[in-house]
Design a protein that fits this description.
Blueprint (H helix, E strand, L loop, with lengths): L16 H7 L2 H4 L3 H17 L5 H19 L12 H13 L12 H37 L4 E6 L2 E7 H26 L1 E2 L15 H7 L4 E2 L3 H6 L2 H28 L6 E2 L18 H25 L12 H25 L1 E2 L1 H6 L7 H10 L4 H18 L8 H7 L13 H6 L9 H15 L10
Parallel strand pairs: 3-4
Antiparallel strand pairs: 1-2, 5-6
Length: 467
């Protein structure tokens, strides 16, 4: 005999089998089993305060729910026909375990406020996991930066060699992006940590339950203030999906840099065998597939974001079944991002830097800006100094020699402020060390960045906020 549906009282005909399949979400939302159980346990306790359950009945419900959690944890829970979602499955099993008392649990509660509560609880915990992965990645980058702070390489704009920088400064430029991503998680946590339970289907709960007590029991900071808004709100998921997209973009750009740097044309870095693959035809190939897959998956992360946004844009207010599709995007983004963050950490930790190739890629034309600065120090206005430094570059190209080989009389024919001490410019270390202003690539600034990141890493995190 098929199980009676939670909503089936007013229906006389059976549901079409194809609609049953489309309507079922248990394969996805089974991941919410723990949150659904904890939410139901807390709700049973608050029903005691409202005298809708006796203490004995609440205890019995909680014991039954604990048994169900054990079954899920051990992968022993049996999903049956009619278990269209996690709420239905858990309620059905609870009734099997404790009898008719289970039917009292849902009073005043709708799956509309139940599912969004479960989802907020799950995502709140997911934030903590993602934060730890981000912080581990930042720690890997910071540690490498300390060890390799003296490696100098070309810095690029427009993918053209621009100015010399420290390899560590390059690494840390990505670490600061990831710190920004982590900071955004902290902000999102606060907006997600708001409890909608007690909103009912859309009009609220008529049984005078203490929502603030319920929120505290579940570790929420506060409660929603409008029941209609609460059951239809998916902004926090959309924000998470956008955050995932942006974090994926940051990972993708880092991956792209390292893919380029690992090519034979650059050969600045070598990706370890553990994070590379080969070719089925060309034996010599070492492909940076770990980084290419990070780059590729960044696109799918954005796809999930745009999918939900298009779903939301056409909906009327409160709950609509379209919203059931939110969890596929949320779970998929979390799963993909967790994997690629781990892959990123492993790839960066194990790659090798070719110090010699980084150094050999430097050229004196990258110090043309230093020529302009030299003239500024000699009293030439910057715009004129910039123009004259360009003329020096053009003259060197015309003579087919490095700019450092131009004789002083030629330099002075361009600008009389060039003196014998211009030769001091042709030193990459000195060039780098002039950038002493906060944020620059000098050694002291790089070490300051590392120190700031390590102090930030040691501070409290999302996990410490849990009740």
């Amino acid at each position: 005999m098929a199980m009676q549906k939670l909503w089936g009282g007013r229906f006389t005909n059976t549901t079409d089998c194809l609609l049953e399949k489309l309507n079922s979400s248990i394969d996805l939302d089974r991941r919410l089993y723990n949150e659904d159980i904890e939410g139901s346990k807390a709700y049973s306790r608050v029903l005691v305060s409202s005298k809708l359950l006796s203490q004995e009945e609440s205890n019995l419900i909680c014991e039954g729910l604990d048994q169900i959690k054990i079954e899920w944890t051990r992968n022993e829970f049996v999903i049956k026909e009619g278990d269209e979602d996690i709420h239905t499955a858990n309620e059905r099993r609870l009734k099997e375990l404790i009898g008719d008392v289970a039917a009292k649990l849902h009073v005043g509660r709708s799956r509309n406020d139940q599912v969004i509560t479960d989802t907020r609880l799950w995502l709140r915990n997911a934030f903590g996991e993602l934060e730890e992965l981000l912080k581990h990645l930042i720690k890997v980058i910071a540690n490498r930066s300390v060890e390799e702070v003296d490696i100098i390489m070309p810095g690029y704009t427009h993918l053209q060699r621009a100015q010399p920088v420290r390899w560590a400064h390059f690494l840390l430029s990505h670490a600061w992006n990831f710190k920004s991503d982590s900071d955004k998680l902290q902000d999102m946590y606060k907006r997600t940590n708001v409890m909608p339970l007690g909103s009912g289907a859309l009009a609220g709960n008529p049984f005078y339950i203490d929502r603030m007590k319920l929120a505290h029991d579940l570790g929420f900071e506060t409660v929603t203030q409008n029941s209609m808004q609460a059951v239809g709100d998916r902004d926090f998921i959309a924000e998470f999906l956008f955050w995932s997209s942006l974090t994926g973009i940051h990972l993708s750009r880092f991956a792209e840099d390292l893919i380029i740097f690992s090519s034979k044309e650059f050969n600045f870095v070598e990706i370890s065998d553990s994070f590379s693959t080969g070719s089925s035809l060309m034996p010599q190939k070492r492909n940076a597939d770990s980084l290419e897959l990070i780059r590729g998956n960044a696109g799918s992360l954005f796809g999930y974001c745009s999918t939900l946004m298009m779903t939301l844009k056409g909906l009327p207010s409160t709950y609509n079944k379209d919203l059931q599709t939110d969890k596929e995007a949320m779970f998929s983004c979390f799963d993909k991002l967790s994997v690629i963050l781990n892959i990123a950490s492993g790839t960066i930790k194990t790659l090798k830097v070719n110090n010699t190739n980084c150094k050999n890629a430097l050229s004196f034309d990258m110090l043309a800006t230093d020529l302009a600065y030299y003239l500024v120090h000699k009293g030439t206005p910057f715009r004129l100094a910039h123009h004259d430094a360009g003329r020096v570059v053009a003259e060197a190209e015309k003579r087919n020699v490095p700019i450092s080989d131009l004789p002083l009389d030629i330099l002075q024919s361009i600008n009389v402020n060039f003196k014998k001490d211009v030769v001091k410019i042709w030193d990459y270390e000195n060039s780098i060390e002039q950038y002493q202003t906060i944020g620059g690539t000098s050694r002291s600034n790089v070490m300051t960045q590392i120190d700031l990141l390590k102090k930030w890493l040691s501070r409290y995190n999302i996990s410490s906020k849990k009740a």
